[in-house]
Write a structure and sequence with these properties.
24% helix, single chain, globular, five-stranded antiparallel beta sheet, alpha+beta, Cell Division Protein Zipa, Chain: A
């Protein structure tokens, strides 16, 4: 059986930023005065350590580019533009042991949410490169769909530049283009390589995205089970063939209402190393056809063709 071996870092870093007019100089005081809820004790215990650093930065000392932060969807474009044009920021960083994930990343994001609420600021995840909508609380149960993956669709039909035929009208449209490339941005903070799927035709973009999401959730579940064994080595070997199920897809969303997929049978994807920190996701090796033939066929559960956003519980709702 083919396998893939990758290095597992001892620590990983999550970074969030809040853009606001007049960011206070004493951000620790802001957190101590305003933070509440299930993460309050974690914030108090970690603040000032490498596991939770909060700094005020402006355009004179930035080591990152606010202009690189983007909107994940049209409804966030105004917030992204305001973030891009800002001159003062609160930056929250968490460098923590890999065994402290996902809690370390959740605590850091909870701190950023608290600062954004106190200052009326706009928050962004500097790992995914996306602005984040304000929420009332960071939920305690980890849900990958809560904007941890940087999973967004490109503009359909490349904003009108793609003229490939529709496969519903023309069978040639199944492989009519290869416009879509999707890549996760966020698995690295949990010690995993990122995932990528490429050469996808525009009509199959959502199915490809849900394959990527499902594979990411399965890898993360297996990764945390492996870490729980307390391995001494700093490398991990996984099968190159991944069996995915309806449960993996539902676990990505973390909802109480299950998405019923048809058929419920497992399906497989093939993983291949592109770099040491990036794996490609493709159809099974024995499948006779292209990635688009596979996505358009009857192998995938039907729900993967039409679920874009959380099907039940709102993302990042308080637990």
């Amino acid at each position: 059986m083919a396998t893939i071996t990758f290095s597992v870092p001892a620590t990983t870093t999550s970074r969030f930023a809040v853009a606001s007019d007049g960011v206070p100089h004493d951000l620790a005081d802001v957190l101590n005065r305003t933070a509440s809820g299930p993460y309050h004790a974690h914030l108090a215990g970690r603040l000032g350590s490498s596991q939770l650093q909060v700094t005020r930065e402006d355009l004179t000392n930035l080591r990152w580019d606010p202009g690189a932060v983007r909107a994940a969807g049209p409804e966030e474009r105004r917030a992204a533009l305001a973030f891009n044009d800002a001159s003062e920021f609160a930056v929250v960083s968490a460098c923590a042991p890999i065994t402290d994930q996902p809690r370390a990343a959740q605590v850091a994001r909870a701190a950023a949410h608290a600062i954004a609420a106190a200052t009326g600021g706009i928050m962004a995840d500097l790992v995914t490169g996306h602005v984040l909508a304000p929420v009332t609380a960071e939920r305690t149960r980890f849900v990958l769909a809560d904007r941890w993956l940087g999973d967004t669709l490109p503009p359909f039909r490349a904003n009108g530049r793609c003229t490939a035929p529709d496969p519903d009208l023309d069978p040639e449209g199944v492989n009519g283009c290869a416009c879509v490339r999707l890549r996760t941005r966020g698995l690295r903070r949990f010690g995993l390589p990122e995932l990528q799927i490429t050469d996808v035709a525009c009509p199959h973009d959502l199915a490809a995205l849900n394959v990527l999401r499902t594979a990411a959730r399965r890898l993360l579940t297996d990764h945390w089970s492996w870490l729980a064994t307390g391995p001494a080595e700093r490398t991990r070997t996984i099968p190159a063939v991944l069996d995915l199920t309806q449960r993996d897809f539902n676990d990505f969303w973390g909802t109480t209402r299950r998405v019923r997929l048809t058929p419920p049978a497992p399906f497989q994807v093939t993983l291949s190393p592109l770099t040491s920190r990036l794996l490609t996701v493709s159809q099974p090796a024995e499948f006779d056809g292209t990635i688009n033939d596979w996505l358009w066929g009857d192998t995938l559960p039907l729900g993967m063709y039409d679920v874009l956003k959380a099907p039940a519980d709102p993302p990042q709702a308080a637990a």
